[in-house]
Amino acid sequence: MNKPSATVAAVDSRMTAVETPQRSSGRHRSRRSRGHDLAPLFLLTPAGLVICVLTLAPIIFLVITSFTDYSQKTLFTGIYRSVGLAQYQKVFVDPQFWSAFARTLVFTSAMVAGSIFIGMGVSRLFPDEGVGDAAAVVGGRGASVPG
User: Fold this and answer.
1) pTM confidence score
2) Which of helix, strand or coil describes residue 6?
């Protein structure tokens, strides 16, 4: 059983005794506390389902159609046939694919490196006194602590 213990809390410069139950470190938890721990998950479930449907459904559709001869004509007729790995074999031996792939890697690497260097350069423009002062330079309200 939990035994209450008296603790002192300061409220508006008055000292009052407050009874607070001690937390048990045991394994037994009440049904209410277990349900309370799951409440955030239940609240996030609708958003999680929407995100899964909006991201996973198109990906699954693309993977399935990559093994077929799906085209614009298929949109109207609904007729398509399975071609297996033939499209992948055709793409991987095409030199144009590999040159486009190399350009994509170079472009992506340049964008990431450029973003990092520009971000580091801009960060050097801020004073080193703290977060509150940097926010004031940008024009926001600084979150600096007086003292």
Assistant:
1) 0.47
2) strand
